[in-house]
Amino acid sequence: xxxxxxxxxxxxxxxxxxxxxxxxxxxxxxxxxxxxxxxxxxxxxxxxxxxxxxxxxxxxxxxxxxxxxxxxxxxxxxxxxxxxxxxxxxxxxxxxxxxxxxxxxxxxxxxxxxxxxxxxxxxxxxxxxxxxxxxxxxxxxxxxxxxxxxxx
Length: 152
Known about the structure:
Elements: H1 2-21, E1 25-34, E2 40-43, E3 49-52, E4 62-67, E5 70-75, E6 80-84, E7 90-94, E8 103-108, E9 114-119, E10 124-128, E11 134-138, E12 147-151
Antiparallel strand pairs: 1-4, 1-12, 2-3, 4-5, 6-7, 8-9, 10-11
């Protein structure tokens, strides 16, 4: 009986380690357009995240990696991940697999069909304004927190 328990325990530990070490499933690059402003989610080499007019450039393309913990959004140009903190700041950092870099995408049926992106760690939603700033706020259902997602 002890041998069986050890085998089950060892199998469980190995399976958990494999899930952590193997990256999630990648999907085609996506562009995110804010529903309220019609500006696209963008980034740069210094890690700033903002919105600006859509241009389909690589700084506005995000590879999505899906796993059971949420979605990692990796910028195509910089290979850095969308990150946030409890103060509501958004930025990109080297991808580290942490929950501040994991997002839940919830489909919102609002006529045009958009997505709400909630940070797994803070439970705050990705938000924007007409000035091009991005940040996270408590989820409120407003269009500044809704994003069209277009696969490129």
